Amino acid sequence: MPLISSESRGVFVISATPFTDNGNLDLPSLERVTDFYIEKGADGLTLLGMMGEAPKLSAEESRQVVRTAIARANELPVIVGVSAPGLAALSDLAAFSMDAGAAGVMIAPPTGLETNEQIIAYFKNAVEALGTDIPVVLQDFPLSTRVHISVATLGTIIETCPSIVMLKHEDWPGLEKVTALRAAEANGRRRISILCGNGGMFLPEEMGRGADGAMTGFGYPEMMRDVVALAASGDMARAQDIFDAYLPMVRYEQQPGIGLAMRKHVLHKRGAIGSPVLRKPGAGLSAEAVAEVDRLMARLDRRLAELS
Amino acid sequence: MPLISSESRGVFVISATPFTDNGNLDLPSLERVTDFYIEKGADGLTLLGMMGEAPKLSAEESRQVVRTAIARANELPVIVGVSAPGLAALSDLAAFSMDAGAAGVMIAPPTGLETNEQIIAYFKNAVEALGTDIPVVLQDFPLSTRVHISVATLGTIIETCPSIVMLKHEDWPGLEKVTALRAAEANGRRRISILCGNGGMFLPEEMGRGADGAMTGFGYPEMMRDVVALAASGDMARAQDIFDAYLPMVRYEQQPGIGLAMRKHVLHKRGAIGSPVLRKPGAGLSAEAVAEVDRLMARLDRRLAELS
Amino acid sequence: MPLISSESRGVFVISATPFTDNGNLDLPSLERVTDFYIEKGADGLTLLGMMGEAPKLSAEESRQVVRTAIARANELPVIVGVSAPGLAALSDLAAFSMDAGAAGVMIAPPTGLETNEQIIAYFKNAVEALGTDIPVVLQDFPLSTRVHISVATLGTIIETCPSIVMLKHEDWPGLEKVTALRAAEANGRRRISILCGNGGMFLPEEMGRGADGAMTGFGYPEMMRDVVALAASGDMARAQDIFDAYLPMVRYEQQPGIGLAMRKHVLHKRGAIGSPVLRKPGAGLSAEAVAEVDRLMARLDRRLAELS
Amino acid sequence: MPLISSESRGVFVISATPFTDNGNLDLPSLERVTDFYIEKGADGLTLLGMMGEAPKLSAEESRQVVRTAIARANELPVIVGVSAPGLAALSDLAAFSMDAGAAGVMIAPPTGLETNEQIIAYFKNAVEALGTDIPVVLQDFPLSTRVHISVATLGTIIETCPSIVMLKHEDWPGLEKVTALRAAEANGRRRISILCGNGGMFLPEEMGRGADGAMTGFGYPEMMRDVVALAASGDMARAQDIFDAYLPMVRYEQQPGIGLAMRKHVLHKRGAIGSPVLRKPGAGLSAEAVAEVDRLMARLDRRLAELS
Questions:
Q1: What is the CATH number of the domain that holds D193?
Q2: What is the pLDDT of residues B226-248, one digit of tens each?
Q3: Nearest residue on chain C to D173, alpha-carbon basis
Q4: Which one of D17, D58, D64, D96 would you mutate to disrupt binding with B, by most B Cβ within 10 Å of its Cβ?
Q5: Is D258 among the domain residues?
Q6: Range with the largest mean pLDDT of B54-63, C55-64, C156-165
């Protein structure tokens, strides 16, 4: 199985976790959505992302998701989110995932870390608990974790933890952070891969600042594929045209809570999963929201036709 | 002077606070930007909004801003943000503002209120301290205040505080809240005016849910004027076309901190203020960000030309 | 095995989780400290409390702790903390614990619940996920969870979730909450058991307000036994005398982080566990802190001699 | 007037802000409580502390408090809390206070600073705004400000801001921080004065770690005077005896919100202020709480008699 590295690029789609209408884990839909992501241009997948429904799974269900998706993804690299309140649970899931063929694991800092020093110590301990042969993605998502990692702190972590090879960048605002990281590398610090989250809201600018791609779960992975490829080829104008067409939906999906329901609604309408339901607790879309999303989907089709 | 009421509609622009290059309050620019907002379609203005630079002003500077802008706005209603850690300071500024001709005052709950009961008590005390003859806008902005007001809590406040006539809606996600408020009114609760913030990110949907307009400081007030007017006239398709054209900029401006610098950059480029500087502490845009914004401004002009 | 009920009273000691010097789970010490707690007057035990080291355990280690301590506690009721980010993990551990002979489970609300309505919905969902035959302790500890449960919210939860039979009271300040709960019961609401946490810092006053006992992990359980028994018998003066003697230590142990290290130091010095080490991440006491604690232990012995 | 310096020692009492029964500022009581503090051993006073009722004052009332207390304190150094959301308001009040004869000003970081770098920048900007001739106390109180200042961050601030001459230490837990600060000074960093807050809860240990005294508003300043003097003279056993006698009250007063009401109740019973009321919003003590406090006061008198 391939491992992720500091040279990894492209689009890693954060996979939805499909459930049946009555809330059971739906492994056939997980296989189907895996195929869908690959067909729409994913270069890799990420499982058990923290903003999805991973925390709603039992430990055994988490392992089923990991096994099933990795088997289905075939040769595509698969990253597994292993964030946990304690290091024992974190390294247990990491070991299981790597044994199952994962390409690396992703760790977000736990809520409650307050100072730069505490954040640095956390990642040092986490990487030590994992063993240094497992490639790690650091997820920098302060809106959710309430942990704020400064540019200098991130630099120290990169310098002291060689197995951290990738940043899932979703600080907000975060464009200057990408620029600062790349500037430090120009001055000799080792390179890391930077894939961008935040639902893709700033993807063209992030690519312009030096990001390597996207890692988010937007229901139209082809947007990310096209924007990343066009930006990499230097055609920023066309990249922004494509991006702008999808932006009304990207924006709608960025709403916490509702956004996940909207994403599953889109995936369901596109035939990628069998049911749009969220496992409890977690509400679906209201009738008004369904109408809004359906209208945006129809507008998107028209706009893409104009652009092609 | 007109007062705001539960029937107020349209676009209230949150005014920027202009400073000279060396950080002094720039009252001539304040007059100029007031003219600019009116020319671009503002139905009213809001001064000393919490996300702007109001907290950087001394008490005397705040009073100068209030006096100057109200005098310049002529017959347009002007709302003054009076949020303060304590009720004495809050009611002092409110009394001054109303004497100066304000149309109402805006209050956000202070950080630290935790339960529904504490929030309800706060607004009861605040309104009592003001006296019930001053019309009040309740600013519901949890991302900034960290105070989360449920639909039921908002209902109780509306029922117990008759002088609260308007909601500055910027919960996120918040569309269901607008729907729930209007549903309660359909069942007999008194009406309040709902103007939407969040930089306008969800303005078409908010209008569709029953909002009365916008209250935010986006550097192109004409977008809000057009979207609100088109939505009010029932032409949602055209409203969304206009909105989508501006959305790449709306999105960029929504970034905390950077967004304000971008807004001032746009206002400066459009000739509305003499200098784009933020008073300390507060950084300007990096060269990369200036290039990004300028590119978005140029793209906007082209897209508007296509649409006209 | 006995189950806890709304009539449960006395002292439930939150058990330490002993590790060997190199950080492995120390089950023989867990048996020894269980004996120690019983010998010093515990009426019950609580395992896997959230402020201890439970989150540092792997899933399998958690199950070992539950099995070992319940077996050793013999006929004493044992409560298991099952708080988890998601309901599937929570109900899995609860089912395992009840099968192993637990007397009930304890649930703290997860960080991120903001409004009264969200808190009420969480407990409704959690109790539904457990099934209504498992007795539940609601842990009300806002300093740690950042979830603030008002008296009215607690009332609604008690009325809608009959299987919640006990409150682990550690709001701060919280004396008025105990009084309000008992007043509501005097007006006809069903009784719940109230055991007090916060390290015992307000135990005499809490007993005076109507609490049924203590649930905390203070290294001298005999203090809690004596204060609870004396207060229950009406001898508040003697209860307070005993309490005051221990208060310098109670206060020292109340320090977050350091407090747990101090507690293990005391348990180790008293022969109840084999090693005072905390599992990583988690520092021990500095030399200065050891000297301070040892001085307080010596002073305590002298003061108790004066009082006897 | 004397200025505070890095050599300041002793007890600075945080002054209560007295109001009449109907909530008006009570300047005669402010003079009386100033006399009381001096009589009970204060070496200095601190006005407008953030946990008191300072934020409830209007700007003009704040100035009245500053003028009145400084005049009454005669030759005693008086520190004025000038924390404010923005630097203009902060430096306005600082300039007024120094003109009125203050010995220095106290600044707590505003809620919302997240990283070490942001905290350091804030104090650099604040000190620059004040001018470097005003001696500054840095208030380190994370439980209230939600700003966590690491030992290294504090070191950088001390090194870059020479006018910060004193630390109001109320991190919790914080004993190791005192030790680390003194260790850095032993290695050559400039000395700062360390006065301890947290209601005095750890005063004996803090003195043992190298603190210079206390700065808190406990209703029995003579406790702080005696403990600080005895510890400074090396008689730690007697210092701890005195401390332990007051500890049940110190502990009760440490409750947020209720603690302030209790403090005013004690000051009123001791004849130092005319009314125990808190200005709105802010509740008084319940009947149960009054009974508890009165019982603790009576027990204190007996215990002090035993000790003398």
A1: 3.20.20.70
A2: 999 999 999 999 999 999 999 99
A3: C255
A4: D58
A5: no
A6: C156-165
ipTM above 0.90, yes or no: yes
**Could you tell me the residue range of the domain that residue B179 belongs to?**
10-233
Average pLDDT over residues C40-49: 96
Longest dimension (CA), chain D: 55
User: Residue D92: closest CA among chain B residues belongs to which residue?
Assistant: B58
Structure tokens at C288: 């200065």
pLDDT, chain D, mean: 95
Which helix (H) or strand (E) segment holds residue B138: the answer is strand B136-140
Q: Which residues of A touch C56 (CB under 8 A)?
A: 86-88
CA–CA separation, D33 vs D270, rounded Å?
10
What is the rounded CA–CA span in Å between residue C123 and residue C132? 12
Judge whether B148 lies within some domain.
yes
D204 upstream amide cis, omega within 30 of 0: no
Number of independent structural domains in chain A: 1
Say if residue C51's pLDDT is above 70.
no
By C-alpha distance, the chain B residue nearest C113 is: B148
At a CB cut-off of 8 Å and minimum separation 6, what does B239 contact? B204, B207, B226, B227, B230, B231
CA B230/CA B124 separation, integer angstroms: 37
Taking only the tens place, the pLDDT of each residue in D136-160 is: 999 999 988 999 999 999 999 999 9
Q: Distance (Å) from the C-alpha of residue D28 to the closest C-alpha of chain C? A: 32
Query: Which positions in chain C touch B118 (Cβ < 8 Å)?
Result: 150
Which residues, at least 6 apart from A242, have a Cβ–Cβ distance to it below 8 Å?
Answer: A223, A226, A227, A230, A307
CA-to-CA separations, B229 to B240, B242, C241, in angstroms, rounded: 12, 11, 74
- Any C CB within 8 A of D83 CB: no
Which residues on D lie below 8 Å from C209 (Cβ)? 288
* pLDDT lower than 70: segments of chain B: 1, 51
**In this complex, do A89 and C280 lie within 8 Å of one another by their Cβ atoms?**
no
Amino acid B284: pLDDT? 87
Tell me the two tokens of residue A232.
Answer: 């990499």
Distance CA A228, CA C184 (A): 61
Confidence of residue C11 (pLDDT cuts 50, 70, 90): very high
Which residues of chain D does B85 touch, with a Cβ-Cβ cutoff of 8 Å? 55, 85
User: Helices (H) and strands (E) in chain B — how many of each?
Assistant: 12, 8
- Lookup result for tokens 């850690």: B85
For residue D158, give both structure tokens: 């001390």
| Buried/exposed C240-253: b ≥16 CB within 10 Å, e otherwise | bbbbbbbbbbbbbb
Question: Residue D51: which pLDDT band, with cuts at 50, 70 and 90?
Answer: low
**D242 assigned to some structural domain:** no
* Chain segment D247-297, per-residue pLDDT in tens: 999 999 999 888 999 999 999 999 999 999 999 888 889 999 999 999 999
- The number of beta carbons lying within 10 Å of the beta carbon of residue A9 is 15
Query: Is C204:C181 a contact under the CB 8 Å cutoff?
Result: no
Find, in chain A, the residue whose alpha carbon is nearest to that of D146: A114
The pLDDT value recorded for residue C1 is: 67
Within a domain: residue C47?
Answer: yes
**Residue-wise pLDDT tens digits, A149-197:** 999 999 999 999 999 999 999 998 899 999 999 999 999 999 999 999 9
pLDDT value, residue B51: 64
Average confidence (pLDDT) over A19-32: 97
**What is the Cα gyration radius of chain A?**
18
Q: Is B257 on the interface with A (CB under 8 A)?
A: yes
Examine the pLDDT at D1 and tell me if it is beyond 80.
Answer: no
Q: Which helix (H) or strand (E) holds C70?
A: helix C59-73
B256 close contact with A: CB closer than 8 A: yes
Q: Find chain C residues with C-beta within 8 A of B117's C-beta.
A: 116, 150, 152
